[in-house]
Amino acid sequence: MPLVALTGGIASGKSTIARRLAEHGAVVVDADRIVRDVQQPGSPVLTAIAAEFGERMLLPDGSLDRAALGGAVFGDPEAVGRLNAIVHPAVRAESARRFGAAFAADPGAVVVYDVPLLVEARVDDPWQLIVVAHAPADVRRQRLVGLRGMTGAEAAARLASQVPDEARLAVADVVIDTTGSLADTERQVDALWESLGDRIAQRAGR
């Protein structure tokens, strides 16, 4: 029942790695999707967000105004902390439920948790392997501008708001370098898949 954490900074190629692992048969649980799911209209999480940050966080249909919430907390560590105190426990509970469901359906499954905020919130969980998607900051900045339409300043601000690359690399059991071509990244993921059992055993033996 391998439980693997996959993390990486913005525009690091993490989604590409998750997709390739899914093609090999892994069950990928997406933390960002869980965040959206636990913030559905009428949910306790969304009710708490509105109570903490104001009703202006809600759109007329009762759903979360993500832009308004982002504007309210971006660059404000204290506000981010208050938001995380609401969201993280719900995400932790729902992710655990999904892990359990995946293993109940297939006790031999490889479950991969695609989680951007591993270092910030989940690094001490009982992962059997931690995989980090990595590309230098300048490469990721170019991707944010070229592929996501951000300005240079917006891209720089997003990168600066995340933990340093060194913090992610420090917890990595496996680093996938996504600087090169898509084929190169996929080759690294394929090699990881083939050696997954050995790598998990090595980590357990440390």
Automatic annotation (TrEMBL):
The keyword Nucleotidyltransferase does not apply. It comes from Microbacterium deminutum. Its EC number is 2.7.1.24. Pfam families: CoaE. Belongs to the CoaE family. It is an enzyme of class 2 (transferase). Its main location: cytoplasm. Catalyzes the phosphorylation of the 3'-hydroxyl group of dephosphocoenzyme A to form coenzyme A. The keyword Kinase applies. It catalyses: 3'-dephospho-CoA + ATP = ADP + CoA + H(+). HAMAP family: Dephospho_CoA_kinase. Pathway: Cofactor biosynthesis; coenzyme A biosynthesis; CoA from (R)-pantothenate: step 5/5. This is Dephospho-CoA kinase.
